[in-house]
C-alpha cells in the first residue's frame, strides 16, 4: 500500500514537472518573439535615419539576433513608404527537447527621414503572412550588389577603407566574406552572395573601395577568383 502511494506521488511529481517545464518553455518562446519584434522596430528606425532604407538594411533589421526565433519576411514599397511584414516563430526547450513555441505575423511601416523616424507596428492574423508557407526567395544578386556598393560608399566616405571593411553590410544574411585586404589605401573584399538555393547557388564578387577619391566598384568573378586577391580593374558600382 505504501509503495503504491509513493509510486502515485512520484508519477504526479513527474507529470507536474513536465507540465511546468513545458509552460515555462511556452512563456520563453513568447518572450523571444516579443523581443524580436521590438528589435526589428528599433533597427528599422536606425537604418532609416539617413533618409533611405536599402534591402540589405531591412534584411539585417529583420533577421533576429534572438537565436531562438526564425523569421520569414516580405517587403513592399509605395513611394518613400516602406512596409515590412514579418512572420516570427519562437521556440524554447521543454522537458524532452523543444516543446514551447509561439508565432505571430507583424507589419512594420516606416518613411525614411533624416532623423530617427517612427516605425509603426501592428500584429496581424497569421493569414496576412501567407508567404510563410512559400519557398524562400532571396533577392536577385544584382540588387544585393547595388545595395552593398551603396552602403560601402557611405562607409568609406565617413571613415575610409577601414570603416568599409568593418561595416554592418558584411553581416547581411546571404553575404559572406571570403577574403579582405587593405593595400595602398584601397579595400578589396572577395565575397560570396547566396542565391535562391542558398549555398547551392552562390556567386563570387569582388568589391573595391577607396576614399581618395571616394569610389566603390564591384565585379563578378568565377568561383576560383574568390580564393585569391589579384590586381583587377573593377566596374563602377
Report on the structure:
The protein is α+β, with helices and mostly antiparallel strands and 237 residues long. It has three helices and nine strands. It has helices at 2-47, 55-62, 141-165, and strands at 69-78, 81-94, 97-110, 119-124, 175-183, 186-195, 198-211, 214-221, 235-236. The strands form two sheets. Strands 5-6-7-8-9 form a five-stranded antiparallel beta sheet, with helices on one face. Strand 7 (198-211) and strand 8 form a beta hairpin. The longest helix is centred in the first third of the chain and has 46 residues, at 2-47. The N and C termini lie far apart (83 Å). Mean pLDDT is 83; it is low at 232-237.
Feature tags:
237 residues; globular; single chain; alpha+beta; 5-stranded antiparallel β-sheet; disordered C terminus
Concise overview:
The protein starts with a helix and ends with a strand.
Architecture blueprint of SSEs:
Elements: H1 2-47, H2 55-62, E1 69-78, E2 81-94, E3 97-110, E4 119-124, H3 141-165, E5 175-183, E6 186-195, E7 198-211, E8 214-221, E9 235-236
Antiparallel strand pairs: 1-2, 2-3, 3-4, 5-6, 6-7, 7-8, 8-9
Helix pairs in contact: 1-2
Strand proportion: 35-45%
Pattern of helices and strands: HHEEEEHEEEEE
Straight-line distance between termini: 83 Å
Per DSSP, the total helix count is 3
State mean pLDDT (0 to 100 scale).
83
What coarse outline follows from CA principal-axis ratios?
globular
Helix content: 25-40%
Strand order of the largest sheet: 5-6-7-8-9
Largest sheet: 5 strands, antiparallel
pLDDT < 50 stretches: 232-237
Amino acid at each position: 500500500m505504501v509503495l503504491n502511494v509513493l509510486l502515485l506521488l512520484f508519477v504526479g511529481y513527474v507529470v507536474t514537472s513536465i507540465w511546468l517545464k513545458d509552460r515555462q518553455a511556452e512563456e520563453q518562446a513568447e518572450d523571444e518573439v516579443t523581443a524580436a519584434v521590438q528589435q526589428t522596430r528599433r533597427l528599422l528606425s536606425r537604418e532609416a535615419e539617413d533618409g533611405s532604407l536599402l534591402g540589405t538594411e531591412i534584411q539585417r533589421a529583420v533577421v533576429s539576433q534572438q537565436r531562438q526565433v526564425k523569421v520569414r519576411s516580405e517587403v513592399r514599397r509605395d513611394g518613400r513608404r516602406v512596409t515590412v511584414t514579418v512572420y516570427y516563430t519562437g521556440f524554447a526547450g521543454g522537458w524532452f527537447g523543444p516543446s514551447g513555441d509561439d508565432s505571430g505575423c507583424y507589419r512594420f511601416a516606416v518613411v525614411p527621414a533624416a532623423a530617427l523616424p517612427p516605425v509603426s507596428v501592428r500584429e496581424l492574423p497569421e493569414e496576412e503572412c501567407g508567404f510563410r508557407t512559400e519557398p524562400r526567395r532571396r533577392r536577385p544578386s544584382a540588387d544585393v550588389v547595388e545595395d552593398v556598393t551603396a552602403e560601402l560608399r557611405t562607409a568609406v566616405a565617413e571613415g575610409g577603407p577601414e570603416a568599409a571593411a568593418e561595416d554592418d553590410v558584411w553581416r547581411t544574411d546571404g553575404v559572406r566574406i571570403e577574403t579582405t585586404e587593405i593595400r595602398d589605401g584601397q579595400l578589396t573584399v572577395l565575397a560570396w552572395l547566396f542565391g535562391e538555393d542558398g549555398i547551392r547557388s552562390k556567386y563570387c564578387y569582388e568589391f573595391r573601395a577607396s576614399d581618395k577619391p571616394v569610389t566603390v566598384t564591384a565585379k563578378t568573378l568565377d568561383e576560383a577568383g574568390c580564393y585569391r586577391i589579384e590586381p583587377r580593374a573593377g566596374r563602377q558600382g
